[in-house]
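Repro:
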Amino acid sequence: MIHAESVTKRHGALTALDDVAVDIRPGVTAIIGPNGAGKSTLLAAIGRLIGTDAGDITVDGLDVVTTKSRLLAQRLAILRQDNHLAIRLSVEDLVAYGRFPHGGSGRTPDDRAHVEAAIDLLDLGAVRHRFLDELSGGQRQRAFVAMALAQDTDHLLLDEPLNNLDPRHGVALMKLVRQLADERGMTIVVVLHDINVAAQYADDIVAMREGRVAHHGPVAEVVTAENLAALYETPAHVVDVLGRPVVLWE
């Protein structure tokens, strides 16, 4: 469970998060909203990548501000939008970095098992020995997702993970997210721009606008024509396809 209460974040005169309160349960939760809504800022605050000006955030009861870094990293993994490294690494070495919070060097039998599983899950076997700067954007994105999975946490935060992925790998990643939540009971929070992807794979949706939570609840309750038209200031139609809402924009 991820709990946020009265969370506020300011950048000078701009309020990026305005008294945000959410309880995120196990399963897949998608955060949606227009540009500048505060989606990535909320995810970064939960992952302790940025500080906040007010409020409290806990992950399984652990305060993200005061908990020791290694302990928090054993419970929570995060994939940012902007993944840049100053050193040259192979895919396999990058994925092994995910084992550091557990005290491993990436070479113990347990570490190797998690690294191999992550490489296999993200279909990276063919490029495991290649350097990151030799890969396509989509391959690099999958390598960073694999590193987060190798961390073996109960909570996973993904900030726009579909960036640079073609349809095949995008669908595969979202199916994997769904599988991890269902089979391992993980709490996975995903920032997404595609409402239809969110509606297809998420259990709950947090809809944000101007730094505030406009709606939070099960997909069917949030993804309505009225809610989306107000959220994005664009007329929308919502139709049912195979039991899931699909959004058509005017």
